[in-house]
Amino acid sequence: MRRSVLPKLAVTPLTPPRPAGIGAVAVWGLEAGGRMRRWFPRLAREPLVVARLEDDRAELVDEVVAFCVPPEHAPTGCEEGEINFHGGVMARARVCAFLAAQGAEEVSLEGYAARALRLDGAAREALALLPSAVTAGQTAFLLRQVRGELRDAIAALRELDAEGCARGLSDLLSRARAGIALAGGMRVLVVGPVNSGKSTLVNRLCGVERSIVSEVPGTTRDLLEAPGGIGDYPVVFVDSCGLSARPKAIEALGAERLRAEIPRADCVLCLGIDPPALPARPATALVLGPKADLGGACPAGALPVSGKTGLGIEALKTAILAVVCEGRDCSFPSPFTHRQRGLLEAAVGKLAGGDREGCDVLLEEITA
Ligand SMILES: Nc1nc2c(ncn2[C@@H]2O[C@H](COP(=O)(O)OP(=O)(O)O)[C@@H](O)[C@H]2O)c(=O)[nH]1
Ligand SMILES: [Mg+2]
Question: How many angstroms does the Cα of residue 240 sit away from the middle of ligand 2?
């Protein structure tokens, strides 16, 4: 980053305002090093200090650990500081209030990434998703993006002739659904008539007794989210109230929520019901034959499953990944946000219309 565009003094919270052992802020900008030594004089002699941070009236703000990062190791190329304090909401608020009183501009982590870390647009999107990552494979994928995997792939495409570029773009786009599902997770909604075993299936899929199971019809009235995963892919499984032709008043509210949820889900699992009978159009759907352990007939083309015994569940998970990810995975560079996919699709359109320059502009925007 050019020094001329650095702020004088900025603070970026590195940890969220939640109960935690420690919290941390980055102190950066042209005056960061000098200010750190003024607040913590021993930093002039010691690499790291445990110290009392006091305000101008010598009131204790917090007991902290403070250190400076030399310019050659600092993301901004200008000496930075870091202050670690007690975690939680109040300690963080007090340290940030102290820094604000000292004239520090508060910049979000995304803002810091954009202004200081010299990351491209796609890498910044990955960095923003990283704190919410819940699986090892998702984290590894996002770290590859922070390091510029997609940026490098797009740069390589731009070196090719129109035909090669078009082939490369369609190859990238074929993995967009997989990339988006891996980076941000997917929603899988379970629908079906009352008592078809929806709640039992959701509990089985997410691995905990999240939903109440009962033979009393209409037990589940609202949408209920159960976080889980399939392999590396984070999944929110969503249980729903039963579909009924003539819902009573309270069920009608649940039915309305369900109708709105169907298009939001990446995949709708239809327990004993055909997708055309759904009250809205799903992105993808799988038809399941419920309570397969009872040995009843399973409709042609339906996957037999039993939430109760686990029968067919591994095959169901494989089928969910296959339809949501269109049979692709992310071992090769993949777009991973709707923004990137939209720009890539538009770039393909430009190229098809013979507008190579327009295509390049859009590709550049992905990683700008
Ligand atoms: N045999 C068998 N019974 C099931 C299965 N799934 C659910 N049930 C039973 O069917 C009843 C309704 O189940 P529940 O999951 O609450 O259905 P929902 O109303 O669709 O959510 C309960 O008595 C469950 O124990 C299954 O796979 N096999
Ligand atoms: Mg239920």
Answer: 7
Positive or negative, the CA dihedral 93, 99, 105, 107 is: negative
Half-sphere exposure for 65 (CA within 13 Å, toward CB): 9
Query: The domain at 185-324 falls in which architecture?
Result: 3-Layer(aba) Sandwich (3.40)
Q: What is the mean pLDDT of residues 319-327?
A: 97
Centre of ligand 1 to C-alpha 262, Å, is 22
Q: Do domains 3-115 and 185-324 have the same CATH topology?
A: no
Type and span of the H or E element at 23? strand 22-28
Per-residue model confidence (pLDDT) at position 335: 98
| CA dist list (Å): 365 to 15, 150, 151, 231 | 30, 12, 11, 32
Rounded to whole angstroms, what are the CA distances from 225 to 58, 177, 319, 366?
49, 22, 21, 32
Ligand 1 in reach of 293 Cβ (< 6 A): yes
192 CA: nearest ligand 1 atom: 20
**Is residue 248 scored above 80 in pLDDT?**
no
Ligand 1 centre and the CA of 308: distance in Å? 7
Give the confidence band of 247 by pLDDT, cuts at 50, 70, 90: low
Predicted confidence (pLDDT) per residue in 61-75, tens digit? 999 999 999 999 998
| Domain residue ranges of the chain, discontinuous segments joined by + | 3-115, 121-175+330-367, 185-324
If you average pLDDT over residues 36-57, what whole number do you get? 96
For a substitution probing ligand 1, which of 201, 270, 308 has the most ligand atoms within 8 Å of its CB? 308
Average pLDDT, the chain: 92
Instruction: For residue 245, name the pLDDT band (cuts at 50, 70, 90).
Output: low
* Single pTM value for the model: 0.84
Q: Verify whether ligand 1 is closer than 6 Å to residue 240 (CB atom).
A: no
CATH topology of domain 3-115: Gyrase A; domain 2 (3.30.1360)
Cα(155) to centroid(ligand 2), Å? 50
